[in-house]
Amino acid sequence: MHIAIARRARALAGAVGLVLVAGCGLLGGSDDDSKSGGNAAPAGADASAAAPGGPTAPGASETPVVPGAADPAGTITLAFAGDVHFNERTVPRLNAGADTALGPISKTLAAADLAMVNFESAITERGTPEAKTYHFRAPASALPVLAKSGVDVVSMANNHAVDYGPVGLQDSLAAAKNPPIPVIGIGPDAAAAYKPWITEVKGVKVAFLAASQVQDITNQKYAAGPGKPGIASALKADQLVAAVKTAKAKANVVVVYMHWGIEGDKCPSADQKGLAKKLADAGATAVVGTHAHVMQGAGMLGNTYVDYGFGNFLWYGTSPYPNSNDTGVTTLTIGGGKVVKEAFTPASVDSRGVPMPQTGAEAKRITDRRDGLRPCTGLAAAPE
User: For bias kind Low complexity, which ranges apply (predicted)?
Assistant: First the structure.
């Protein structure tokens, strides 16, 4: 079944808009949704449309780093960022006008062949709040807004996907049924929640999966099961590991986007490290994730790239942890089925909750701090 992804050409500057194209699909699409080769838009999208830009803040770069622009034919680039939602100060980003919801860093996401974030929210305007402290939700219009910001696929396997109970979950599943961009890690049953979205770019098939390892009310009450709607859970790794092995048999590259870790902790937990090893052994090309609200370290686990935590990205408020506004976009170049280059575009979450790309001393500080987190991960440095 075909999904038309709202996409844009990889214009590096002077980008002003794009055409959103409606499509059909089921919860992130079929096992083999194809995308045309090169830096072209997928079938159905307007290949002549450009990536939107936006105003810059003091200290922000007007031309964010665009990794992979001169890479040889046959390689692909994948861009990743952290937690995104539309609550409190970020609600106006749903109607950002000529700007994109994510601001100028959208150009960095758009420059990659495929870009992914975690959508930390239920997609509903109804429902009853669950018995928890924080509740996040957004209207279904958030998905095309993210598509306009350069995002190609989102994970909803997180601890806020069912903040508004069964009614909210029903609405989220309805929004994900015919999405402008694939939504993974959630479904009407376990088979759908653990199902990868597989697409093809430059002749390379890429599979994306998502799951949550966070021990919370969402994983307790709303883990997907046989005939039971909910999120893909990784509290027990077996089903996720099996899904990775199955995806590896169908795709050249397998990405697993995790929700995991301990809030505020800059180092990965033993549970994170243990699961990363299992996913790497199962054939994952890259294992990436969020949840801690701060950046965690990244590097290589054998042939598998691991980034334990991207941190906040489009965020409703300042988290009560040091350096919680430090963020950025990680762009991986994949060649021969493995990561051959990592590039990081540093950003800082501003007073509007928007991740603004940085230059100069602040960019160096964020990048150096990120690189300094690697020792506690036990990972080797990624290729540059």
Answer: 36-60
